[in-house]
Design a protein that fits this description.
single chain, alpha/beta, Elongation Factor Tu (Ef-tu), domain 3, Rossmann fold, 8 strands
Length: 166
């Protein structure tokens, strides 16, 4: 069981959020909790696929910071300001070239988005994921990736590399 990974689902006020798989956003408290005024924002990769337009998911390793303490203790319905999506870390369009992802730790979040999108769109790309974590219990989305490798119509290789610094 993941001891330090937390998943958060954010629902846009207008009910719709458009982005490309692999992009990231800045997350800012609309009303910062006391003690986090000077530590009020972070940049997060979007872990959801773009098809899930009515909500976005972010994942974070919980460490001791004012921002993360504030997120952890935020009540259901807490408001955040979310920047427009940014970044060009997206899947290339050349289906003749394989896409190889070498990822460590929480860096898996944009890859989850990309792989979800590829599966949904039934893209013919050959996709390979090599995913490193210090401990087996720290592997985020492990069961999901293992199931994905068995059932989706894309070439997919999942490797768990333990004991290697991400």
């Amino acid at each position: 069981m993941l001891r330090t990974l937390w998943l958060f689902w954010l629902e846009p006020d207008d009910g719709y959020f458009e982005f490309r798989a692999g992009q990231h956003v800045d997350l800012v408290f609309a009303h910062p909790p006391q003690g986090s005024e000077n530590d009020n924002f972070r940049t997060f990769s979007l872990a959801t696929a773009p098809q899930e337009k009515t909500f976005i998911m972010i994942a974070m390793r919980m460490r001791k910071t004012a921002f993360k303490d504030g997120v952890q203790s935020a009540p259901l319905g807490a408001k955040f300001v979310v920047s427009r999506p940014r970044g060009s870390f997206t899947l290339h369009k050349d289906i003749t070239r394989a896409a190889v992802f070498l990822v460590g730790g929480i860096g898996i979040t944009p890859i989850r988005s990309i792989l979800q999108q590829a599966a949904q769109d039934r893209l013919p790309h050959k996709l390979y994921l090599f995913y490193s974590n210090r401990e087996a219990e720290d592997v985020a989305f492990l069961e999901e990736f293992e199931n994905m490798a068995l059932r989706i119509p894309i070439s997919f290789s999942f490797q768990r590399l333990l004991g290697i610094e991400p």
